[in-house]
Amino acid sequence: MKLPIWASILVLLIGLASNAHGVLIFEKGKDVETRGYLIEKSEILVKIREVLPDGRLAIRSIPQNEIDLMIQAVDQKRLAELDPEKPQTYRDYAEELAEKKKDPDAHVTAIRLYLIAAYLAPDTLGRSSCLGLVALARSPREARLFRGLAYLLDPNHDRGLLRKTGTPAAAAEKVDDAPPGFDSLLLGLRRLQAEDRRLALKEIEKPGVKKAMLPYRHIMLYEELFLICQQRTRAVSNDDVRKILALEVSLLKDRQNGVNVAAASQLAGRDPDWSTIVYTNTAKPVFSASLTHATEFDPRLSQYVDGSWVKPTAKPE
Predict the structure, then answer these.
(1) Residues with Cβ < 8 Å from 258, sequence gap 6 or more?
(2) Which of 46, 72, 98 marks a domain boundary?
(3) 314 inside domain
(4) Are 36 and 49 in contact (CB under 8 A)?
(5) Domain check: are 144 and 244 in the same one?
(6) How remote is the C-alpha of 242 from its chain's centroid?
(7) Contact 312, 136 (CB under 8 A)
(8) Domain range enclosing 176
(9) At a CB cut-off of 8 Å and minimum separation 6, what does 281 contact?
(10) How do the pLDDT tens digits run along the chain, 317 residues long?
(11) Do residue 111 and residue 193 come from a single domain?
């Protein structure tokens, strides 16, 4: 049985937390490479935490005489040479590691480096770095988040960035214990992003949708959403697109954090989160706030020192 995405991410973090570096091992007589984290290596054998097909880890020892080739994709020395004052170097190395994403260490390190590049230089590297992240996304939800960030960082706000090329509009994910109307609201928002207002209207007219939107009236009113869906000849403005995107991200964020979105009275007085900033077109805070919470990696920790990511130290003048 395949593990859920959060469990797979946890498995990767366990491997990284032990300072074990990712390896790809090509064994003699096997067509598929072995992925894992190196524990120890001698002239006789190699001991690893192998990443199994279902995402679990298993400790395994492989005799050296059964190994054709062992590759450690991530160069620790090169990580240590990355300079926060040169954001382009982070993206360049991320692109190299993304091509080796079968290696678990290369995969998560590429995600981290793309995030750092976008955080350090949002105006010049933000859009391209977030598009690089889309190809490395570990779940459909994460891919949508990265596309949303790419849209926000794109000077032209290209709406095509919000849709997966070559595929129909994504269906709403079924959310456990969601209040009535929640799934229909999500699906309606995604139909809008796919420019299918007829189906979007059909979804948001379903019972419970109006109530599900109450906690998010600081982002968009139900009546606003209804008019956008109903008036099919009217062009959707960039402000409307920002609101739709902010609403979707805020819904997913609250569900992931365990917030009861049906409790409108409790949420109505909360402080606006980063999604509120999106639709008010205040760009700079959006980039930093969303990038620091987009994944388990904090892009503010952009210097690699002695095997750990830390905040950069000020250089002497």
Answers:
(1) none
(2) 72
(3) no
(4) yes
(5) no
(6) 19
(7) no
(8) 168-294
(9) 239, 242
(10) 444 443 444 444 444 444 567 788 899 998 888 988 888 889 999 998 888 888 788 999 999 999 998 888 888 899 999 999 999 999 999 999 998 888 888 899 999 999 999 999 998 998 899 999 999 998 887 888 888 788 777 776 666 666 654 333 333 344 445 567 888 898 888 888 777 888 999 999 999 999 888 888 888 899 999 999 988 777 778 778 778 877 877 777 666 555 444 443 343 333 333 333 344 444 443 444 467 777 889 999 999 998 889 999 876 55
(11) no
Of 243, 257, 262, 268, give the one whose Cα is nearest residue 152.
243
Give the total number of structural domains in the chain.
3
In a domain, 233, yes or no: yes
End-to-end CA distance of the chain: 56
Query: Do 118 and 124 contact (CB within 8 A), yes or no?
Result: no
Amino acid in position 142: E
Distance CA 40, CA 72 (A): 13
Using CA atoms, how far apart are residues 244 and 250, in angstroms rounded to an integer? 10
Output the six-digit token pair for 248.
């979707």
Last residue of one domain, picked from the residues 95, 126, 156: 156
73: tokens are 């994709």
Residue 200 CA to residue 193 CA, distance in Å, equals 9
Q: Which two tokens stand for residue 162?
A: 């919000």
Cα dist. 129→1, 90, 95 in Å?
33, 10, 9
From the list 51, 56, 21, 27, the residue with the least C-alpha distance to 39 is: 21
Q: Of the candidates 197, 235, 193, 243, which has an alpha carbon nearest to the alpha carbon of residue 218?
A: 243
